[in-house]
Design brief:
Structural class: alpha+beta
Number of helices: 6
Number of strands: 16
Shape: globular
Bound molecules: 2-oxoglutaric acid
Strand order of the largest sheet: 1-10-5-12-3-2
CATH class: Mainly Beta
Distance between the termini: 38 Å
CATH topology: Jelly Rolls
Order of helices and strands: HEHHEHHEEHEEEEEEEEEEEE
Radius of gyration: 17 Å
């Protein structure tokens, strides 16, 4: 029986076989404009714990000092919460999970010209969703391509177990963890237009290269979800949200993961 709400069988198979799926045009132009305006406003003042830019860091050697990512904007901004629960995105997630999703995290990346990328990693190392897995919905606010540091995915690595990361190259990555792709598997850039959404499995190895352009930001709105039947999640992702905006608490996952307990206190990815 076909129980899909919005995806075709071919799209569902693509996600299952390759670990990721691009769905085009899930955000309308007016919705993207509202997101752009919201994060333009947010970019001018610090929000302690969530967004801590150096506001006078004019053309500093590290452009991410002026434009770091915004963590969990849904916790202090209603527009971010509204779009974390964007119905077209939730419908796709429901098809992928075959059960309702719960929203666990939102982020916004400005990724200004010259910004370093994020080394290859696996999301469920951090979110620790169990049983089940997290799925990311990565929305292109600007067009994303190889030049401005689009997302990179290593196809089929959703089959790969969660591994303990190595150290990333700090010259190229603003995060410190690196997961080496399995032998003979390569990262591939995902070219996207504004409003397209990339969905990917929590085990999939992914990351991004530097923004090599001189004048193009690569803004993206990135949310992570858990399946409704999950019972456990990492401590930094509570509360989760149902589609109607109500809150859910899961049990905090005490598992130290593949590295052991020393990684427990790491900042969420
Ligand atoms: O957008 C990027 O550059 C990386 C985002 C990412 O890896 C993630 O959200 O897990």
């Amino acid at each position: 029986m076909n129980t899909l709400k919005t995806l075709t069988d071919a799209q569902k198979k693509q996600f299952e076989n390759e670990g990721y799926l691009i769905v085009k045009g899930l955000f309308a132009k007016a919705e993207l404009e509202e997101i752009e305006e919201t994060f333009e406003k947010i970019s001018h003042a610090a929000v302690p714990g969530y967004f801590e830019p150096e506001l006078d860091a004019a053309s500093a050697s590290d452009p991410l000092k002026r434009y770091p990512r915004v963590m969990h904007p849904h916790r202090f901004n209603e527009t971010a919460k509204k779009y974390m629960l964007h119905r077209p995105v939730l419908n796709v997630l429901e098809d992928l999970y075959q059960e309702p999703p719960l929203a666990a995290q939102s982020m916004f990346y400005y990724k200004p010209p010259g910004a370093r990328g994020q080394a290859l990693h696996q999301d469920n190392f951090y979110l620790k969703v169990e049983p089940g897995n997290c799925i990311a919905a990565w929305t292109a606010v600007d067009g994303a391509d190889e030049e401005n540091g689009s997302l990179l995915v290593v196809p089929k690595t959703q089959e790969y177990e969660i591994v303990c990361p190595e150290h990333a190259d700090a010259k190229e990555s603003f995060t410190t963890h690196y997961v080496k792709p399995p032998k003979d598997q390569k990262a591939m850039p995902v070219v996207m237009e504004p409003g397209d959404v990339l969905f990917f499995n929590g085990n999939l190895i992914h990351g991004s290269y530097r923004n090599k352009t001189k004048d193009r930001f690569r803004r993206s709105f990135i949310c992570h979800y858990a399946n409704e039947s999950a019972t456990h999640i990492g401590e930094h992702y509570q509360p989760l949200y149902r589609a109607d905006g109500s809150e859910v608490e899961l049990v905090v996952n005490p598992d130290g993961g593949p590295c052991g307990f020393e990684f427990d206190t790491l900042y969420p990815h």
